[in-house]
Amino acid sequence: DLANRMSERAVDVIRMLMRQGQMMKINDVIDADTAQLIAEELGHTVKRVAEADVEEGLFDTPDDPEALQPRPPVVTIMGHVDHGKTSLLDAIRHTHVVAGEAGGITQHIGAYQVTAPSGGRVTFIDTPGHAAFTAMRARGAKVTDVVVLVVAADDGVMPQTIEAINHAKAAKVPLIVAINKIDKPDAKPERVRTELLQHSIVVESMGGDTLEVEVSAKQKLNLDKLLEAVALQAEVLDLKSNPARPAEGTVIEGKLDRGRGPVATVLVQRGTLKVGDIVVAGAEWGRVRALVADTGVQVDTAGPSLPVEVLGFNGTPEAGDRLAVVENEARAREVADYRSRQRRDKAAAKITGRGSLAEMMKELKAGAGRKEFTLLVKADVQGSLEAIVGSLDKLGTDEVMARVVHSGVGGISESDVTLAAASGAAIIGFNVRAHKEAREAAERSGIEIRYYNIIYDLVDDVKQAMSGLLPPTV
Ligand code: GDP
């Protein structure tokens, strides 16, 4: 490959490597420094293109603190299936559409903004559940400021409720509990509060600091209160962003529209996005032809926390891709080209994810900052699960500890794999297997799944892996 790009013969490159004491075959991989040395010795000029160079200054450039303005919070709704996530999103949208815009006609663009009774605005991500949430996190995008955890008062805390709690914890995003379906005769909101205690969520009415609101999505009860709770939480978080700068954001949804071409719903996070801006997102770029708000109205600009459809991309970016405005087309092309090359290489490269015990051990040994073994544990019965998690918790030493990011009863699902990928965790199955989709997803993302049927073996393996990297005690 290197010979090819320099229009040299491969044998010459290999001979040169040999002279430096490196015995290489034609398809072996050499490091960047060696490549540069060889290229220069053959009389070529080298321009090193590293990620840091190409993406330099695209994201997260510092802002003058004076320029920071409060921005609306971004909320994701999570909870167990059928507990009312969709109903709640719909109810809030219909009762609180931003007044004065388009007479309340809304379209689904993946996110929407409403006005809370006190006047503050709140942005909701319109795809309930944690699949979207973790998929984005796995790609390094941080979008959600607050998670609203929906728990049905007639059903209580269920497996996906616990999953959602763990997702939020892993992402360090604060929770607000919405106890839903309180209109039902068999509603037991008190039971929900006590059950949450077992998962270290202490709601305010029980002396804790997690805000809770009793709601009914069906009867549209207390939605105002819920929005106020979100606004209150946002105040605590002191969310700020500079609107007066080129925009940065994250793609929430990407689709190819028959009439309009590639359409990306983007949540603007900093700066203001304008029609005419040149943008890159993932491996795609384009000039913004139009911006469409969730109300269906075309707008000329979109500021922080506002979701908008962006038209004008030359391809469809993916959910989780970060968007940035760049100074000209050449720059946009450079970044997009670089990224599509990178994605190709990544897909071609053999997957060595962080989610394997051996890989964690290597990182620890290399002193790469890993001080914990992240694990996700699934087991067939609650009793075994508790015993396993309990034993793993005890394994920690001063130097390294095992951290269980999620544990649950049941087979290993695709959503387990997504969470593991987002947290760089290995998955452990005790007397359970992985679903087919989960196995495939694990293979794709390089997550290791280990199966056990004896607790001792399981704990011993983790212990071995953990102590293997510790320096010998003198
Ligand atoms: P999701 O799976 O969490 O998105 O749940 P859905 O929003 O689809 O709701 C599941 C079921 O619960 C539907 O039949 C809803 O009509 C019903 N439901 C949702 N919220 C309420 C509520 O506040 N009260 C009552 N009685 N039913 C509700």
Automatic annotation (TrEMBL):
GO cellular component: cytosol
Compartment(s): Cytoplasm
DNA-binding among keywords: no
Entry superkingdom: Bacteria
Family: Belongs to the TRAFAC class translation factor GTPase superfamily. Classic translation factor GTPase family. IF-2 subfamily.
Protein function: One of the essential components for the initiation of protein synthesis. Protects formylmethionyl-tRNA from spontaneous hydrolysis and promotes its binding to the 30S ribosomal subunits. Also involved in the hydrolysis of GTP during the formation of the 70S ribosomal complex.
Name of the protein in question: Translation initiation factor IF-2
Organism in which the protein naturally occurs: Blastochloris viridis (Rhodopseudomonas viridis)
Taxon lineage: Bacteria, Pseudomonadati, Pseudomonadota, Alphaproteobacteria, Hyphomicrobiales
Gene: infB
